[in-house]
Specification:
With 349 residues, the chain is of the alpha+beta class. The protein is 39% helix and 18% strand. It is built from 13 helices and eight strands. It has a six-stranded mixed beta sheet. α7 crosses α9.
């Protein structure tokens, strides 16, 4: 993944030294953007290992809607251990609560999914984690903040937005499974919406559907047929996700963040019967800590490897499936290879 090395190179070449909350000190740049093509591959860092199951576990925890860390413990995910209140077993109203239970009564993710389906071209497909009402008091420790009913940390991932766009006709035919397209074709013929070319071979079906979808696209009627196509599991929309991240630890956090929002985009695509197209990330304060520089120098010597593909268990279809039934074992990186792990670097807390 060349974009990751570009992120590191930008900080090394353009960064300025800054003091920070943790006391480690950082080299930092402000406002850096990158783009990842999700149709071709999954953006898993390869110059060092991506701990994929840990990332999936945290993402599924987000979907649970609570700051309780029991699910993380059950799946041996320790990344929130330092910020978990030992008696409450909670990090307070962090990402899961803001995503699914904003101020105790708003399920932002459910609303997002419903709005993508009902009003695909809306400019309001936005989820915000930045809730001033529960931001931590900086005069208290993270654990103390949780005890006071606040979040352990201010959210680094601040908000994300989904953009929905019509597929072109070739993408409709290429991105969807042949058997689903055949079932849709059979319905369209039976209902008189398609006059079949001749004897119904696969070639003829593709030709029929090419003409049908070309006409729909030319007449700006994609949204009108989307519900019918969903009934046959045929995606006629692509979705892209843009994340704004106010603070980003480029060495430890960013590879996780890239993979996590690529995964979330794929989950939302599965639930809405769309196709994940691209991930865009804009970082605010993008930094490296002073104790990471030796490891970063080694990473910069390594050549990125070929990117893997993401596989998600076919049975997972609805938001409830992902929230209540999914386990980390339901997700797989296909053909993933990486360079070996580097010496452990202490996290800035």
């Amino acid at each position: 993944m060349y974009q990751y090395k570009k992120i590191l190179r930008t900080i090394l070449q353009e960064g300025i030294e800054r003091k920070d909350r943790t006391g480690f000190g950082t080299t930092s740049v402000f406002s850096h953007s990158c783009t990842f093509d999700l149709k071709r591959s999954f953006p898993a860092v390869t110059v060092k290992p991506l701990y994929f199951k840990t990332m999936v576990t945290e993402t599924l925890w987000f979907l649970k809607g609570t700051g309780n860390t029991q699910f993380l413990d059950e799946n041996n995910c320790k990344i929130w251990k330092e910020w978990t209140h030992p008696e409450l077993q909670s990090v307070g109203p962090m990402y899961p609560a803001q995503l699914r239970n904003w101020n105790g009564n708003i399920d932002q993710l459910k609303n997002l999914v419903e709005n993508i389906i009902k009003d695909p071209y809306s400019r309001r497909h936005v989820v915000s984690y930045w809730n001033p009402e529960v931001l931590p008091d900086t005069s208290h420790s993270p654990i103390e903040n949780v005890g006071l009913g606040h979040a352990a940390l201010a959210p680094c991932h601040t908000l994300f937005q989904i953009y929905v766009e019509d597929k072109d006709v070739l993408d409709i035919l290429q991105d969807n499974k042949q058997e689903d397209l055949q079932d849709l074709h059979a319905y369209l013929v039976a209902s008189g919406k398609i006059d079949p070319a001749n004897n119904g071979t696969l070639f003829d079906i593709d030709s029929d559907l090419y003409d049908y979808f070309s006409n729909v696209i030319n007449n700006n009627e994609v949204a009108d047929i989307a519900e019918l196509c969903r009934d046959y599991n045929v995606a006629v929309f692509d979705i892209s996700l843009q994340l704004y991240q106010r603070s980003a630890d480029a060495y430890l956090g960013v590879p996780f963040n890239i993979a996590q929002y690529a995964l979330l985009n794929n989950i939302i695509a599965r639930v809405t019967c769309t196709t994940a197209k691209a991930l865009y990330i804009t970082f605010g304060d993008l930094h490296l800590y002073s104790n990471q520089m030796e490891a970063v120098e080694e990473v910069m010597k390594r050549e990125p490897m070929n990117l893997p593909k993401l596989s998600i268990k076919e049975d997972l279809r609805s938001l409830d499936d992902f929230t209540l039934l999914a386990t980390p074992d339901d997700f797989e990186l296909v053909n993933y290879q990486s360079h070996p792990a580097l010496a452990k670097v202490q996290a800035a807390i």
